[in-house]
Amino acid sequence: xxxxxxxxxxxxxxxxxxxxxxxxxxxxxxxxxxxxxxxxxxxxxxxxxxxxxxxxxxxxxxxxxxxxxxxxxxxxxxxxxxxxxxxxxxxxxxxxxxxxxxxxxxxxxxxxxxxxxxxxxxxxxxxxxxxxxxxxxxxxxxxxxxxxxxxxxxxxxxxxxxxxxxxxxxxxxxxxxxxxxxxxxxxxxxxxxxxxxxxxxxxxxxxxxxxxxxxxxxxxxxxxxxxxxxxxxxxxxxxxxxxxxxxxxxxxxxxxxxxxxxxxxxxxxxxxxxxxxxxxxxxxx
Length: 285
What we know:
Residues 1-21 form the signal peptide. By secondary structure, the protein is of the alpha/beta class. The protein has one domain (2-11, 15-283). The chain is 47% helix and 12% strand. α4 (100-114) crosses α8 and α9 runs antiparallel to α10.
């Protein structure tokens, strides 16, 4: 079960005065200028019903020398590194973060949907337990765009690397209060994922329309406060951290970057931040 969960987890000249947020509807963007080797930025969705790569995406991958995802997903030590970050700091337990009644509700919910008891995961960060349910949000077998990108890159003998370390990604879920994470897990259990399923389908529809700004706005308005209240921890802080790394990497080699699509849109998204630095970022339609 933990191995499956980790796969899901594994399962961004002239400087304008204001970041230029993207208005075009596209998931694939060409980045160039100011000494960059022409590279590509692609918005992924970590869980999907269709992981087919478009001809333009495949062409962009073919025209670059390496693939960067959020994490180095072909690192053989990845699962071991992630295991170290699953538990809450300070010896906290989920049974201490909820009333006995709410804890029992979550326990029953997990037994019904996953066949496991919450008691066996009592020390895990609640968000990770919520992530176990991602396959239940789909009405199809879960596919991974990242896995498909890796497959294509490996076939071409391209190296697969990561924009951030496991420790950096896992620390996000220490920055978000455990109490808030537990509150959302309880809400999910009480409505048997009804809202999560509804919002996921709406998000998936926006992704299929390649509407980056729509996806970002939806996350801000989500009833799930993990996404609506903590966008700085989940998105914007990480976007800012990625920019100097993307610039350095793409200055050295033409690179294909594949990151979650929610990281791309808006004035604090990766596209706008690169434009603010004076780089050319244009949609590939």
